[in-house]
Amino acid sequence: MAFSPFNWFWGLFSLDIGIDLGTANTLIYIRGKGIVINEPSWVAIEKRTRDPIAIGAQARAMVGRTPANVIAIRPLRDGVISEYEITQAMLEYFIGKAHQQSIVPLPKPRVVVGIPSGATEVEKRAVFDAAMAAGAREVYLIHEPSAAAIGAGLPVNDVQGVMIVDIGGGTTEVAAIAMGGVVVARSLRVAGDELDQDIINYIRNKYNLFIGERMAEKVKIAIGSAYPMKEELTIDVRGRNLVTGLPEAIEISSVEIREAISSSITVIIRTIKDAIDEAPPEIVADLIDNGICLAGGSSQLRSLAERLSADLKVRVWVAEDPMTCVARGCGIILENKDEYSNFLVGLDREPAQRTLS
Length: 357
Prior knowledge:
Layout: H1 5-11, E1 17-21, E2 25-30, E3 34-40, E4 43-46, E5 52-55, H2 57-60, E6 70-73, E7 76-77, E8 80-81, H3 84-99, E9 110-115, H4 121-133, E10 138-143, H5 144-151, E11 162-167, E12 172-178, E13 181-188, H6 192-207, E14 209-210, H7 213-223, E15 234-241, E16 247-253, H8 254-278, H9 281-290, E17 292-295, H10 304-312, E18 316-318, H11 325-335, H12 337-340, E19 344-345
Parallel strand pairs: 1-9, 9-10, 11-17, 17-18
Antiparallel strand pairs: 1-2, 2-3, 4-5, 4-6, 7-8, 10-19, 11-12, 12-13, 14-15, 15-16
């Protein structure tokens, strides 16, 4: 994008924003301030008119409790937009909320948004258009694993290669990066949501107990693990008995939850192995020194790093504050535009947006 004196002038005052538009959570990073918003990607809408009633944490609290005329939905599935107008309304709300951080009126912001590396051109365009319609002056896209690697502090511009595995709510993103570019990338639509569904299915099939997504997520966070623990844990699970139709509570162990999610964990490991297999030998050799970095909210699953280390035969470690890596990476790009602008993604039939004016 050519230099524009107008854009440069407004850029001095603009409250530029980095957005991790996640399936489970949306995070907003403001240049110079850090992460100011971290809310669930939920919207409660009026069923007939589809007008938003509540957004973010307030909408999340309504899940499973709404009256007949209201539904609470997530407008993103598998990391991409499934409900365009509702996503636009959610973005507009979050961008407006971010602008409230300033006491004076500000021009429309420049926005950097993370997208899955496997997003199609149609999906990229949907994110771009939704952000523009929500009030952005300029929109730049970046693949989530690249943003996560930058946010995790990996030396992405060095000659020596690094690997990032970003496990979010809807997608698992794997990328080997060297010399300021992505060498190998894999995008898998198996992540935290799939683990929740595994838990729901396991409890329904074994105990005839139907539980909701919120309970499944609670169980996953409380006792979920990818590797046997020294002291196994238990938790009370509450739901509806499918035989009697009445409320019921059972105690379930971390051993059972590990069994429930094992197939999805295996799929994630297989995807990482495929990426390593495709990478050049020099990059693979670099992983012996640098290891593999985990990012994303679902990377916090107990013992996941240990399980991956055992299966992949390299050191695997979790980034500091892994849930915010993508948002922090988008923010770092805004603050160091010349150093990282080559990671920005262009749209078809348009020049790739390689520089921030």
